[in-house]
Amino acid sequence: MKVLINGYPFKVKFVDGNSRKMKPDKDSYNLGLTEYADGIISIRKGLNERTTRSTVIHELTHAFMFAFGYTIEGGRSYV
C-alpha cells in the first residue's frame, strides 16, 4: 500500500518477523518500523488483527509527525 502524507510518499509493506528490520538483535524485536529517508513503513507479518491495526496506526503517526516537521522527541525538525 502507498500513502502520500504532506507530499512525502510512504510505502507500507508487511515483512517477515525474522528479518533484520524486525529483529535487530537477539534481545529485541519490532512490530513496526518507519524509515523516513527511504519512505518505507514495515509491519511485522503474522500479528493478530488488533495488533496489526494498532501497529499500522502507530507507524503512520510517526510518518505524519515527520511529514509535518516534528521529530519523535516532540521538537520541530523544520523539514
Helix content: 10-25%
Q: Indicate the overall shape.
A: globular
User: Within the largest sheet, what's the order of strands?
Assistant: 1-2-4-3
Q: Which regions contain 5 or more consecutive residues with pLDDT less than 50? A: 74-79
Structural class: alpha+beta
Q: What is the H-and-E element order?
A: EEEEH
Query: How large is the radius of gyration?
Result: 13 Å
What do the pLDDT scores average to? 89
Distance between the termini: 24 Å
Give me the count of strands: 4
Count of helix runs:
1
Question: What share of residues are in beta strands?
Answer: 25-35%
User: What is the multimeric organization of the chains shown?
Assistant: single chain
Largest sheet: 4 strands, mixed
Descriptive report:
- The chain contains one helix and four strands.
- A four-stranded mixed beta sheet has the order 1-2-4-3, with helices on one face.
- It has one helix at residues 49-67, and strands at residues 2-5, 8-15, 32-35, 40-44.
- Mean pLDDT is 89; it is low at 74-79.
- It has 79 residues and is α+β, with helices and mostly antiparallel strands.
- The relative contact order is 0.20.
Keywords:
disordered C terminus, globular, 24% helix, alpha+beta, single chain, four-stranded mixed sheet, 79 residues
